[in-house]
Amino acid sequence: MLVGPAPDGRGLTAFVPVATGRPLAVCLFHALHAAREAVDLQRVTGSMDAFATAVGAGVSHELTEALVTLVRGTEGARIRVDWAPAAGVPEGCVSGAAPVEFSPGDLPVLLEAGRRYRGAEPSVTVTVTGAVVRMYRSGPQGDGMVRLRVLAGADVGHLRVTLGEEDYRTAGHAHLMGLPVRMRGLLTGQSGFRRLTEVREVAPVQVDEAERDRLLKALQESTDDFGTAFGPACDD
């Protein structure tokens, strides 16, 4: 990552490599907009419920804490995500989007959201079996993200998981063969949202012919979700 000041001295620009940084930039783009919308809804309705939904777009305790740090003691902060012209605009994002703005008046809501996120239920180590339904990485190599339809091991419908290159390849092979995968990791989150981190022991799971045919049929019905078509969604 390359970070430098803007010419006017009032801004800071961070450049991230397309190959490894784009998935994170896509999630940041959606998370910032979701956080802004959640703050607006809270200020109108008084309800914090939108922050539970916003977690699916990438909003977290870390993000609210970072926004508080940026805004506190200032007249406000404006954040914009731009895309390298040569790489194009990711699916679900827009070019030249207006900056997302946060003001000191948003601080009480952001602080309360951070407190709620910190109060999430404890993380637990689980072994999850699931069918890979989406995959995305920005290039032919490196880490990638997968979305699992959970079959066993956790009381949730779906999980989004970031995998290293070798584990991503293993998940891709299982996906093509119509086989579920098993992996071990730390299950975190609340309000219907779950994320699996510190993932290890990724391996395909052998199933009977009928189950394999069913998974392959599901694969054929969702071919648009394979390869680089994970899309912009950071939801789980």
What's the layout of helices and strands?
Elements: E1 2-5, E2 12-15, H1 18-45, H2 49-54, H3 61-71, E3 77-79, E4 100-102, H4 107-118, E5 124-136, E6 144-152, E7 158-163, H5 165-177, E8 181-188, E9 195-204, H6 209-221
Parallel strand pairs: 7-9
Antiparallel strand pairs: 1-2, 3-4, 5-6, 5-8, 6-7, 8-9
Helix pairs in contact: 3-4
Can you walk through the features of this model?
This protein folds into two domains: 8-118, no CATH class; 124-225, Beta Barrel (OB fold (Dihydrolipoamide Acetyltransferase, E2P)), CATH 2.40.50. The chain has helices at 18-45, 49-54, 61-71, 107-118, 165-177, 209-221, and strands at 2-5, 12-15, 77-79, 100-102, 124-136, 144-152, 158-163, 181-188, 195-204. The strands form three sheets. A five-stranded mixed beta barrel has the order 5-6-7-9-8. A two-stranded antiparallel ribbon has the order 1-2. The protein has a two-stranded antiparallel sheet with strand order 3-4. It is α+β, with helices and mostly antiparallel strands and 236 residues long. Helix 3 runs antiparallel to helix 4 (107-118).
- How much helix is in the residues? 25-40%
Q: What portion of residues belong to β-strands?
A: 25-35%
Largest sheet: 5 strands, mixed, barrel
Mean pLDDT: 82
SSE sequence, one letter per element: EEHHHEEHEEEHEEH
- Rounded Rg: 19 Å
Which regions contain 5 or more consecutive residues with pLDDT less than 50? Answer: 222-236
Q: Output the structural class.
A: alpha+beta
How would you describe the shape? globular
- Across the major sheet, the strand order is 5-6-7-9-8
Terminal CA distance reads 27 Å
The count of domains is 2
Number of DSSP helices?
6
The total beta strand count reads: 9
